[in-house]
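Quick one: C-alpha cells for this chain, please?
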Amino acid sequence: MIHHFVALGDSFTEGVGDPVKGIPLRSTHDWLADWMRAASPNMRYTNLATRGLRAAEIRSQQMPRGLNLQPDWVSIIAGANDALRGPFQPDGLRAELNLMFGAFEGIGARILTATLPNFTLRLELPDPLQERVKHNLEATNGLIRDLAGRYGALCFDFWESDLDKNPALWSEDGVHPNAKGYLEIARQVALMLEQHGIALQVAVQGEGR
C-alpha cells in the first residue's frame, strides 16, 4: 500500500498541453494518483512539478521539499529541457539525476522514472540541429536507463513505446502530450505498475474524475 506519492519534474509532470474535447487536461501523474487512491483511499499525493526546469533546478527547488514530505513512492522525470535547450552537459545531468535518485532511495522511497519521447519526429528542425537534438535525447535516455537499473527504479521506456507514432496524442507544439495523450500514457504506465504489484483501479472510460 502506498502512503504518499510525490511527483518531481517539469512541464510533463505538471500537465502542460492542448485541451481535447471530453477529456480533462490533467498530467499522467494526476491520473495515476487518482487510480492509486481508488485502490488505497488514504494515499496522499503531492505534485511539485514546474514547467521549464532543467534537472539541476528540479533538484534544487523540488528535491528538498519532496524529501521533507517523506514519501514512500516518488516519480522523478527530468532531462527534457536539458536535452532540448543547450548547452547539453550529459555528465552534469547524470550527476543531478544521481543525486535525486540516491536521496530518495536513502529514505526508502520507491522510484518511478521514464525515458524521453523522440521529439524529433514532430519538431521541424534543420538537419544539423535535428541530429544534435536526437543525439542528446538518446544520450539522456541511456543515462536514465542506467540509473534506473542502479537504483532499482521502475522505468517506463517512452522511447521504445508506440506513443510517439500517434499524432492524435500530441499538442501542436510537438513537445507536450495533449489531454488525450496524458490519459493514454497514464494507461500504459498503469499496466507497467500493475505488473510490478502496484494496486490501481483504472476507470473504464478514464475521463471521469
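The chain is about 45% helix and 10% strand.
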